[in-house]
Amino acid sequence: MRALDSLSLTALPAADEALRGPVRAFVQHAVAQLPAHVRARSWGGYDDHFTREAGRRGFLGLTLPKEYGGGGRSAYARYVVVEEFLNHGAPVGSHWIAERQSAPLILKYGTQEQKRFYIPPVCRGESYFCIGMSEPNAGSDLASVKTRATRNEAGWTLNGQKIWTTNAHRCHYMMALVRTSGSSEDRHKGLTQVIVDLKLPGVTVRPIIDLSGDSHFCEVFFDDVQLAPGAVLGGEGDGWEQVMSELAFERSGPERIYSSIVLFDEWLAYVRTPPGRTPESVRLAGKLLSQLAPLRAMSIAVTGKLTRGESSAVEAALVKDLGTAVEQAIPALIADDLFRRPEGDVPLELLRTLTYVTQVAPAYSLRGGTRDILRGMIARGLGLR
Fold first, then answer.
1. In which residue ranges of the chain is CATH 2.40.110.10 found?
2. Of 68, 121, 283, 338, which is least packed with CB atoms within 10 Å of its CB?
3. 84-93, 106-115, 259-268, 336-345: least confident range
4. Has 315 been annotated as catalytic?
């Protein structure tokens, strides 16, 4: 248990909580005409105008230094903004990965030239990144990467394939984990991160259509792609350590609680009406809220660790694993409640929203690390393996 002793409950600082009012007003206006089943897509949604306006208002890059166009604020401030974006179902997919993890990773490991080139456009909502980690036939085993960058006179030649790459067809750059030496049998050794301009010759992006009809996942092919010498992020061969740092950004935010929240709120609004209220639905609302509240408190506690510069990999994995379970339970339990009712009593928009979330919910326990991977990390953190 000692690995989780430092997960101290904390409140959001008043100065950061004060952001909630203006952010909420902005988001409510932006999504006012969007039906719930569209808002339920939120961090899979894509809207250039929303992202650029969020950047103009200073709601992107809040934790990044002002010298690179950021807000120079703490992770608490970003938590408030992200929570409001997700709770209202804002279409944040455009900037999501770039602002959440790519820009902070470049800030931590990049050269001054890389920081000045890549970070300011992210803060303005003008530059989008995707993440190239997973590969075919590798499952969640990132150490078995086979995509290779080979040094040449002009920099590096890149060959290989990535899969399950979110919004690659809409992004400007990919942060890719590749092998620069050795073979997949060498595991963590010889892995390096490179920044790939997706407009380069030899890059092919193919969207993958999922059960809901969306195509935010993609497969990306590299065929003799020429990278400049400055494409390497951090040290050659340090890719594994950097990816682990990056995944802490990915697993620590409120998005690991709120993927089904638009559906939950739509259902809760129905339950508050005379036709929707039943003893069973009231009990279910209490059950779900009693799980969401402590998860939010834990998520804020992880944000506190990030603010203090402490490692939060194990705690973030725990929140992600528990949060995913609740996110996936919400559509299943709401479906049980709604389908017990007489046909025609349930609002059509609520059913549309339930259909979409039910279709995408299986992916919640895949993105950001599968349950088996996360639970292995938690077990090691607790000294159990």
1. 131-237
2. 283
3. 336-345
4. no
